[in-house]
Design brief:
With about 500 residues, this protein is α+β, with helices and mostly antiparallel strands. It has 15 helices and 14 strands. The protein has a five-stranded mixed sheet with strand order 7-6-5-8-9, sandwiched between helices. A five-stranded antiparallel sheet has the order 13-12-11-10-14, with no helix packed on it. Strands 1-2-3-4 form a four-stranded mixed sheet. GO terms for molecular function: nucleic acid binding.
């Protein structure tokens, strides 16, 4: 029948039966039983609430003491106005749900959900988030049985400021790839990195244009030894314009900074624990380790020679060809023509840029950019100490470059990449640190020794190190010995300062 009337544009008007002089057949085939129109509502809902009597009684008492809910109860019982503007301002959020609002045994329900009085909303938010589930899971739990205006926003704010959830959280999604700008010539930009293999220390120096790298055996990892090896490379290939390294102590020392000034090159350091910033050197370290392991019983220098003459898949030329503009002679029989310089640098640049673009496209499929942080933002910093899975509260003090920030945490300054920071809605109040367990004098705490991947420095203004409200106003008294020793993050036992421990002998 529906298919038959699709060809017609029918307009239907309602008419009462007494106005229809020629009634249809169905209007006369009525049911003999009298019909009743009933209004249904949820009844005895309170008896099905799976909570204890004490908690139910508390909920009823809090509802009775809540002026807004009492006004809402009166409105439900007497009837809602036709216009929301006729309601008090405290009841307008309930106007859209007026058909679902009921009163049962002193409690107000929206459908099957209890309307929570304002004095119990904090308690309910704590109960909903008792297992420290995510925002979506907690909202689903709350929407099943609880209701109050703005409940979703209140729960989101409560969870976003949860100390436990912000301390123990998962890592950020990787950010999109930012390839280094391709140098215009060989040895213009180089990367340096150290590694250890079989108890021996090595240094790899990589050219960013050609991927040609040199490996050096180090007697130790001091700055003087590293500088000595780099000077030998500079004597052969010239002084680079840019040298990239991590924040190891040998690269952040004053001796190395003086070396950079003397040989007129810019020294750039990557953020701690962000090896991608010096990915060229990190990739060379990976290759060097594999070559040294596999050729432990053979001639390792011959292996390095052969690797430098192996064409890469990206350009079809070898690192030696891109660096020297020619092949270097190996043990393979090679004609004199192949050993002549004939590499076109412009063509190599185009191939390398195309390879960089392809790498970025593939990497960015599972990455996204994080929003920039501003000075003064409260963040959580990811720690990389073994066994330390917590995210520590910190404050952004400076933006160093596109994705590197200087932050302050526990009285020390750190440098971190954006991927290791999470913005939080918490206040900027500092966390209790280990050295707050005892009274300390009004002076900055000692700066911990920097490691190869993390540098902590003491800020110059003392006000930043120790906020004024945390400094003792009264004279510092000698601290009593603690029964339970307190340790710092590095495992060092905190020793309380001994003040006024001298012996005064009066003159006789």
């Amino acid at each position: 029948m529906m298919l038959r009337i699709e060809n017609y544009n029918i307009t239907v008007h309602y008419k009462k039966g007494k106005e229809m002089h020629l009634a249809d057949t169905l209007s006369r085939a009525y049911i003999n039983a009298p019909s009743r129109q009933e209004d249904f509502e949820f009844v005895n809902m309170v008896s099905f609430l799976p909570i204890r009597e004490e908690r139910l009684a508390k909920l009823k008492v809090r509802t009775e003491n809540d002026e807004n809910l009492q006004l809402l109860k009166t409105t439900i019982m007497t009837g809602w106005p036709d216009d929301r503007n006729d309601l008090p301002a405290t009841l307008t959020p309930y106007f859209h749900f007026r058909d679902e609002m009921t009163v049962q045994d002193g409690l107000i329900f929206k459908g099957e959900r209890v309307v929570v009085p304002e004095s119990m909303r904090g308690e309910m938010k704590t109960a909903v988030h008792s297992t420290h589930s995510g925002i979506d899971g907690c909202l689903k739990r709350a929407r099943e049985c609880l209701f109050w205006p703005g409940m979703s926003g209140d729960i989101k704010n409560f969870i976003s400021t949860c100390e436990t959830c912000n301390t123990y959280q998962s890592a950020n999604q990787p950010e999109t790839l930012m390839p280094h700008e391709l140098p215009s010539r060989q040895w213009e930009k180089v990367g340096v990195d150290l590694f250890e293999l079989d108890g021996k220390d090595y240094m790899v120096t990589t050219d960013y244009f050609s991927n040609f790298w040199e490996i050096d055996r180090l007697e130790n990892t001091t700055s003087s030894t590293v500088i000595k090896k780099l000077k030998a490379h500079i004597a052969r290939y010239g002084s680079p314009c840019i040298l990239v390294s991590d924040n190891g102590p040998q690269f952040t020392s004053e001796n190395f900074q003086e070396f950079a000034r003397s040989f007129d090159f810019e020294h750039r350091t990557s953020s701690p624990y962000n090896s991608k910033a010096n990915g060229k050197a990190e990739s060379s370290v990976k290759t060097a380790k594999a070559l040294l392991r596999k050729n432990k019983e053979g001639d390792q220098f011959l292996a390095l020679l052969n690797y430098g003459n192996t064409p890469s898949q990206a350009t079809g030329t070898s690192p030696a060809q891109r660096f020297f503009n020619r092949r270097t002679r190996t043990l393979l029989p090679t004609t004199a023509t192949l050993l002549k310089p004939k590499v076109d640098l412009d063509t190599e640049k185009k191939k390398l840029r195309a390879h960089q673009k392809k790498q970025k496209t593939n990497f960015d499929k599972g990455a996204k950019d994080l929003p920039h942080l501003e000075e003064g933002d409260t963040v959580r910093m990811q720690y990389f100490t073994l066994g330390h899975k917590k995210w520590t509260k910190a404050v952004v003090t400076k933006r160093l470059d596109d994705r590197s920030y200087e932050i302050q945490a526990n009285g020390s300054l750190y440098r971190r990449n954006r991927v290791h920071l999470k913005k939080t809605a918490e206040s900027a109040s500092p966390e209790p640190s280990a050295d707050s367990a005892c009274n300390r004098p009004q002076q900055p705490p000692p700066t911990p020794c920097p490691t190869a991947t993390e540098t902590t420095t003491t800020p110059q203004p003392p006000a930043k190190m120790t906020p004024q409200r945390h400094q003792p106003e009264a004279p510092v008294k000698p601290s009593s010995p603690s029964k339970i020793p307190v340790s710092t993050r590095s495992g060092r036992t905190v020793k309380c300062p001994k003040m006024k421990d001298f012996v005064y002998i009066a003159d006789k």
